[in-house]
Amino acid sequence: MNFQDIISRLNQYWSKRDCAILQPCGREKSSALFAPAAFFGALAGKPFSAAWTEVCRRPGDSRYGDDPVRLGAYYQYQVMIKPPDGDLQRACLDSLRAVGIKREEHDIRWIEAGREDCPCLDISGAGWEVRLDGMSVARFTYLQRLASVELSPSTVEISYGLERLALLSQKKSNILELAWNDRLSYGGLHRGAEKQFSRYALEFADPGLLRRDFEAHFKEAGALLGHGLYLPAFDLFLKCAHCFDLLAAREAVPGAELPDLGKRMRELSAACAAACTGDKGDD
Amino acid sequence: MINRDVLVEVRTENLPAGYILSAEKQLEAGASARLAAAGLSFEGLKAYGTYRRLVLYINGLPSRTPEAAAHAGTPPAGRKMHGRPALKELSGILPALFGSLEFPGTVEWEEGGSRFARPVRGVTALYGDKTIPFSFAGVRSGRSTVGLGARGDKQLRIPSAEKYFRTLENANVLARDQERAEAMSCALAQAAKRMKLEVEADEDLLRENLYLAEYPVCVVGAFDQEFLKLPAELLDRAMRERCKFFSVRDSGKKRQPYFVAFRDGVSKCQKTVEDGFRCALEARLRDAAFSVRVPQNG
To answer: Which of A234, A250, B35, B94 is the 20 to 30 Å CA partner of B241?
Structure first.
């Protein structure tokens, strides 16, 4: 199944399960959970069901387009459902069939994977990495804490790696060779950017400039929070997070400094979340 | 009075491999204590677990509690006491027992606010051929269960507690831990013999794999021998911790570019799975190689 059709199928599938189909946000992010729709959707005290595609950037995963299954920028398909409604694990399995992956032809495993691995966000959740024939294709999480806010009930988050799904669906072994549609390949569309952004992330990104940007965004975010403007503050948090990811990828920050930056970002995201949950306004 | 067996199976979304052994121990201890407190005797009991079933099996339970234990006071004159029905006792004991299990982590998923290691999706409870009626975590008990996921979660009707293990086995589920462990050890030994090499049967890794498959099928594959140049600890981490694969060595303990792994299910499309495993392992190994490259700082 072509890459673009996989996205359409997932949209159809989750829209039939009462998910609003959203559009991607225009900010760099390492995971779709950082999209404001996902972040604030999980925090807000009302039911929320949505599904959509996000472009994620992970500078540390940049490989110049040389690695067949790892990219510095990739597409995540995000599903958020709160409260958890029905057997969503089964729904997730059924969605694989919708994109042309037959369950009985593959080894499907649910390997325990908590949501505790994010340096910029105080987060906790119970869940799994969904592995198809050993390859991680999705994460399924019962999110229980997000940016220091306890979520009750939990929010179900399913994040598919669309390229990995497409590899299985198209029975290919290199992402760049995936068919985007009948004419275009994934590599044809993305190879150039993958190569150039890899050089940027791993060789040319200026650590000094990134540090200054980080501090400037961080300061402005704090000021905005003082006025109750947590949405723009979170937007600046995302800019900080991207600086942080680039600094980490460049391996150009002295040892103790990176965890310190991470700690400050956890505090900033928690402050945005607290402002949101405390906001009883007219939104 | 004929003694019958008791079978309780609580089905959940996939349990973390590390939760299961402790849950089995808690079930065994808790069941013994609760049955004794209710005055119910039994011939034996044992708990079993797979990644999505916690099973308690009790052998030889009488259908009623003995008369002496039926009441604390003296029986009213002229009335004969028969003890309480075991079925009724079990209806109270079992949900309380499973509800008392403690796990390193729990989730809350249903309106009733139940918490359990993972969401509960089914409960099978039989005393002999009778259903033991109760609700646990918002799920009603019944006599049906499901077969192996890889074969489409076929619905299975369990005729009686005594026929539980046989019925599951016919649907490719080895519910008894020991049975799976033996199947896996045997498969590893066979793989080693076929390859004329040694398979590292790491105990912890075996235990983890034991709780990642209900019907373990062995998959043997190779990887690019370039990766053998990686530092041993990185190679190990990728193989064992990330992929849960067993490594292979020659008689001189020299590492070989092969892996032995288990898949969950029948051996359909074995080649697809083997290729996938290799691809997944090599992806991890490339990441490991990337992590030890010399960073370009300028």
So the answer is: A250
Residues of A in contact with B298 (CB under 8 A): 203
Dihedral angle over CA of A168, A174, A177, A181, nearest 10: 30
Who's near A11: CB < 8 A, 6+ residues apart?
A: A21, A51, A52
C-alpha closest to that of A34 among A229, A226, A225, A239: A239
Best of B279, B287, B291 to disrupt the A interface (most A CBs within 10 Å) is B279
Mean pLDDT computed over every residue of chain B? 92
Taking residues A14-40, report their average pLDDT.
Answer: 96
Side chain identity at residue A136, one-letter code? S
The tens digit of pLDDT for each residue in B186-212 reads 999 999 999 999 999 889 999 999 999
Q: Judge: B298–A203 Cβ closer than 8 Å, yes or no.
A: yes
Phi, psi dihedral angles at B281 (to 5 degrees) = -65, -45
Question: E strands within A113-228?
Answer: 123-132, 135-146, 149-161
Across chain A, mean pLDDT equals 94
Q: Report ipTM for this prediction.
A: 0.91
Q: What is the pLDDT of residues A171-187, one digit of tens each?
A: 999 999 999 999 999 99
CA B99, B100, B103, B106 dihedral sign is positive
Q: How far apart are CA B92 and CA B73, in angstroms?
A: 22
Contacts of A135 in chain B (CB under 8 A): 276, 279-280, 283
* B281/A128 CB distance under 8 A: no
Tell me the β-bridge partners of B247.
Answer: B259
How far does the CA of residue A155 sit from the closest CA of chain B (Å)?
Answer: 9
The sheet with strand B198-199 has its strands ordered as B198-199, B246-249, B255-264, B216-222
